[in-house]
Amino acid sequence: MEKVPEPTLRRLPWYLSVCRLLKQRGEQYVSSTRLSKETNIVASQIAKDLSCVNIVGRTRVGYDIDNLLEVLENFLGFTRIHKAFLFGAGRLGSALLNDTGLKQFGLEVVAAFDTSPRIIGHNVAGIPVYHINELEAKMRRHNVKIGILTVPIDRAQEVADKMVVWGIKAIWNFTPLRIKVPENIVVQNTSLYAHLSLMFNRLEGLEGEPATNDI
Amino acid sequence: MEKVPEPTLRRLPWYLSVCRLLKQRGEQYVSSTRLSKETNIVASQIAKDLSCVNIVGRTRVGYDIDNLLEVLENFLGFTRIHKAFLFGAGRLGSALLNDTGLKQFGLEVVAAFDTSPRIIGHNVAGIPVYHINELEAKMRRHNVKIGILTVPIDRAQEVADKMVVWGIKAIWNFTPLRIKVPENIVVQNTSLYAHLSLMFNRLEGLEGEPATNDI
User: Is A200 close to B101, i.e. CB distance below 8 A?
Assistant: First the structure.
């Protein structure tokens, strides 16, 4: 399979959600016209996107929903469990530890790290919290490639550096700081606060502006 | 002030974070070269972005950090409290209610809505949970324009419709579903699971691929 372009990658989860919904409602097939209606993405683009993951619809019948679900969930990585460590079990970190939805999408947090004596040695949502100095030992025990970064910004770069040193390959960065990592490390930024400011800004510019519906 | 382009809007929070960090370290001025080093954004772009919010640096001195902080926090909407309702106090919803960081960035959740008798009438992180049927009454009491959508996907569109009917103007959509709203409603999508799949995909394509550092 050729490399799937990033815009396509960003749209695939939308199609997956619609298929899940339609399956819940007992439907068996979905046309690209229907997918288009549900996602506001033009049908020809949808057909192109799905052909990237080798899904082809049948004339007059459309796509087989079970098949779409299987291929998309598998392609998006949601059917395999990826182990992760979480760094910074403060407000946002604890919130994520409590979000069991992540596991349903293939991410299992197996341990958390912090520096606060108040929390080290305890469990958050059943997940043990260790001192960051124990990272090396825990890395050797678990096969973990993903680190979730939820520390305060003044610790973000330092903790990211530690992750990289001990073998983390992908960092899910929830801090509003742009961390610096070597070229071979994947960084996925998810700054809730950046999204919040986009929303505030759009809300204030509402008068006369069209709605924006952006990932 | 002219309308700030969206790519600029997406970069401004990065500059804000660096400034907060430098202020914590007792620094007073920051050059665009320094900002560039900390954010991996070219200095000329930074100067352009900051001029969009009427910030101009001084030759050889750079930008005054206190001034940058004030203008950026104000422009990004973090200095004003925006009231919000949260819809769906399940896993992710409760996690967000527990994230007191949101308030520091200008978002105050004043009430949550759900349909589960197990949770209605209770507080989550000090925030009362009401039945969704009480939305109309609560909208009349509070001046709320923002709704956070964290319901399961099979309820997402229906709850979004209710929000719009009762006067919500901006929806922060955490569901992986692309909701349909009238043109004058702002939708900010933050799908953690879509970001997760992007990260999985990059991680699997790691060999020989350059690092991606995307918002």
Answer: no
* A199/B206 touch (CB, cutoff 8 Å), yes or no: no
* ipTM confidence score: 0.87
Contact of B1 with A181, CB cutoff 8 Å: no
User: Would the CA dihedral through B129, B130, B132, B134 be positive or negative?
Assistant: negative
Question: How distant, in Å, are the alpha carbons of A144, A184, A185, B211, B214 from that of B208?
Answer: 20, 8, 11, 9, 18
Q: What is the pLDDT of residue B58?
A: 86
**pLDDT band, very low/low/confident/very high, at A98 (cuts 50, 70, 90):** confident
**Contact state of B178 with A204 under an 8 Å Cβ cutoff:** no
A107: β partners: A82
pTM of the model: 0.87
Question: Does the domain at residues B6-76 carry the CATH identifier 1.10.10.10?
Answer: yes
Helix (H) or strand (E) holding B172: strand B170-173
Query: Do A101 and A119 contact (CB within 8 A), yes or no?
Result: no
Assign B207 a pLDDT band (cuts: 50, 70, 90).
very low
What mean pLDDT is predicted for residues B65-87? 95
Whether pLDDT at A198 is above 70? yes
The residue with greater pLDDT, B25 or A59, is B25
What per-residue confidence (pLDDT) applies to A44? 94
**Structural domain boundaries of chain B?**
6-76, 82-194
3-state SS class at B191: coil
Q: Which residue has the higher pLDDT, A212 or B151?
A: B151
Query: Distance between CA atoms of B76 and B86, rounded to whole angstroms?
Result: 21
Q: How far is B198 from chain A (nearest CA, A)?
A: 7
**CATH classification for the domain delimited by B82-194, as one of 3.30.70.250, 1.10.10.1450, 3.20.20.370, 3.40.50.720:** 3.40.50.720
Q: Which residue of A has its CA nearest to B76?
A: A197
Tell me which chain A residue has its CA closest to the CA of residue B18.
A177
On the question of pLDDT at B97 being above 50, the answer is yes
AA letter at A25: R
> The tokens 């769906």 sit on which residue?
B88
